User: What shape does this take?
Amino acid sequence: IGRWDTSSSTVAISYWGGAYLKTAFTGTTVKIKLRIASDIFVSIDGKADTLYKAANGTVNLTHTPLHAGTHTLRVATRFQSDFIQFQGLILDPGAKTVSPTVSPKLIEFVGDSITAGTKDSKLALSDYAWLVGEQLHVEHTQIAQGGICLIDNIHCYAPGSSIGMSRQFFKMQTVAFPNSPNWDFSRYQATAVVINLGTNDNTKRLSDTTFQSVYITFIKNIRAKYPHASIFVLRTFGGYKATPTQAAVRAIHAAGDSKVYYVNTTGWLISSDYATDGLHPTDSGQMKVAARLAPILKPYLA
Assistant: This one.
C-alpha cells in the first residue's frame, strides 16, 4: 500500500513514510529479506507494532514461534527517509502466503512534516493520517515531506530543494529524488484525499493571492488523477494561510466541483498539544486531530 517501485522482479521498493506491505501466511515463523537498512514497524496478527531499527538482510520477525495456523503480517516504514527494499519472505517448509484482507477504500493524506509525523513517538505510525486510516479500517497513504511548501520553486524544503508539493505529489519518490519518475495513478485510486499544506509557505511571505492560485491549480490537478475522490482541504492547525485556503475551495466549488470540502480545524488543538517547538503536534495532539477528522471522513467512505 502506497507508492512502490515494482519494476524489478527481485525487489520492491517503497517510497514516502507510512508505506506498508501486508499479507497473510501459514506456519509458525516468518523472516523478511531486505536489501538495505531501514527502520520498520512490524505487526503480526494485529498486535502492537515492533520497531526494527536499521533492519537489513534476513530479519527474523518471530523469535518466539507462533501457533500453527494462518497469521497476518504488516510491515511499514517509520519515516519519509525509510525505504523498504523488499526481497521476499522466508516461511516454514511447506508454508505459503495467503491473500490478506484489503479494504477497497483508501485515503491519501498530503502534507508536510505534521502529516509525516515529525516529533511523534512512532513518526508516520502515530500521526493523524495513520490513526484516521486505522480507526476507519481503510487503507491509507501519506504523501508527506518535512519542510515542504505547497508552492514550487521557492526553496522551502530544509536541505535547499525548491520542489513544492504542487509538483512532487505527482512523482513516485520524495524530494530526496529530484529526478523521480512520475507516479502511475492507475496503480490505485484514492477514495478520499486529505490535504494539509500552507504552514511552511507562510514563512516565505508570499502573497495570499499567489498561494490561492497555486492551491486551485493543485486541487484541479489532483482531481484529474482521482476523478471520483472526495477531496478535503484542511485549515492548517496553526491557522497559517487559512484565508486563501478557504478561498481556493470556494473557487473550486464555483467552477463546478462540489466534491471538494474545506475542513475548519479552528480549536482542534491548544498550545499544550504541541511539542516544544510549538509547531508539531505531540502524540496526544495527533490523537485529538484523528478523533475530530475521522467522523468527518467516515460518511464519504460509505
In short: Residues 208-225 form the longest helix (18 residues). The longest strand covers residues 30-44. The chain has a mean pLDDT of 96.
